[in-house]
Design brief:
Elements: H1 2-11, E1 18-19, E2 24-27, E3 39-42, E4 47-50, E5 56-58, H2 59-67, H3 71-77
Antiparallel strand pairs: 1-2, 2-3, 3-4, 4-5
Helix pairs in contact: 2-3
C-alpha cells in the first residue's frame, strides 16, 4: 500500500513527502499553504489528517478531492 500512497502523493505534486517509519507519510498540506509539514497519511489505516487546517478523511476522499475524480475512479487509482 505504501507504493500506492507514494504514487498518489507524486500524482498530487505534494513536495517534500517523507516517511520516517514506513507507516506514516508526512508532507505539506494540499489544502492550505504552510511552512511546516502538518499533513500526515497513515498507510495502514488508509487515512489522512492535517494538524494545520484539520482536514481529515480516507485516502479515497483525499484522491477524490485533490484529483477531482469520482468515487470509482479514486478507488481504481488506489489499487
Amino acid at each position: 500500500m505504501k507504493n500506492v500512497v507514494q504514487n498518489v502523493i507524486d500524482g498530487m505534486s505534494i513536495p517534500n513527502a517523507t516517511s520516517s517509519n514506513g507507516v506514516e507519510i508526512s508532507c505539506h498540506c494540499p489544502f492550505h499553504s504552510e511552512q511546516n509539514k502538518s499533513f500526515f497519511i497513515n498507510v495502514d489505516m488508509e487515512t489522512y489528517h492535517c494538524f494545520g487546517c484539520h482536514a481529515k478523511g480516507s485516502l479515497t476522499n483525499l484522491v477524490m478531492t485533490v484529483c477531482k475524480v469520482g468515487f470509482f475512479k479514486a478507488t481504481a487509482l488506489l489499487r
